[in-house]
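haha ok so turns out i had the wrong file open the whole time. this is the CORRECT one, sorry everyone. sequence first:
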Amino acid sequence: MGQVIALANQKGGVAKTTTTLNLGVALVERGKRVLCVDLDPQSNLTMSQGIDPDELDRTMFDVLVHKTPLEDVILEREIDLAASSIDLAGAELALSSMIGRERALQKALLPVRGRYDFVLIDTPPSLGLLTINALTAADGVIVPVQCEYLSLRGLIQLENTLTMIRENLNPDVRIAGILPTMFDGRTLHSREAVEILQENFGDLVFETKIRKTIRYAEAPVKGTSVLKYDSKGKAAKAYRDLAEEVLRDG
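then structure:
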C-alpha cells in the first residue's frame, strides 16, 4: 500500500500546491509511482498541470459525494492527478449529512493505493471537512510553513486538529515534516522564523528550505512543474532535495 501524505496548513499562500506537485514530480524522477489528489476547490493543482477544471466531466466532487471510483477521475500528466473543480466547494455541505463523512476519501483511496508508492493530497486553506478527510486518510502530514512569525502560530491550531483526528478517526496520523517556505536568507525575520521552528519541533523540520523565487509562479502558467520548466535551476533542486529527505525518513 502506498504511503499517503497530506499537505496541510489552514493558512493560504504557504506553497501547499507548489509542494504537492513538485515533490510528486521529484519522487517520479526517483522511479516512484505517485498520485496527487487535488482536494482544493480552487483547483490550483489541477490547473498547474495545464488542465481546465471547467471542462472536466468528473472530479473529486463526484468521488466524495457520488462515490464515483477514484480511478475514473485520474488524469496522467507529469504525475497521476485526481482532478478537482469548483464543484468541490459544495462537497462539505453534501457530505455533512452522510454517515462516515470523514472517511469518504479514505474509502475512495483503498482500491488504488496498491498501485502507488506515494499518494500526495493537496488540501484547502481551512480545517474543514475536506481537510479532515485528508488527515483521516493520511499516514503522515507535511506542513508547509511560511517563514514569518504569524504563520508559526497557525501550527498550534493544526496540531490541535491532529490531536482530535488521532483520538477519534485515525490514531496513526502524525506530522511527517515541517517545510519552511518563502524563505529569504537575506532577512533576519526569515532566519529567526526557522530557528523558532527548530526550537519547537526539532527534527520534524526539514533541512530543505523553499526559497522565494519567481520560478514557482512562472511554471504553472506553462502547465508544468518547476522541475520541467527550469530543470537545472535552484527551485527544482530544492524539491529534489526534499524528495531525498522524504525517501530517507520513510
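The beta strands are 3-7, 34-38, 74-76, 80-82, 118-122, 140-146, 174-181.
again sry for the mixup
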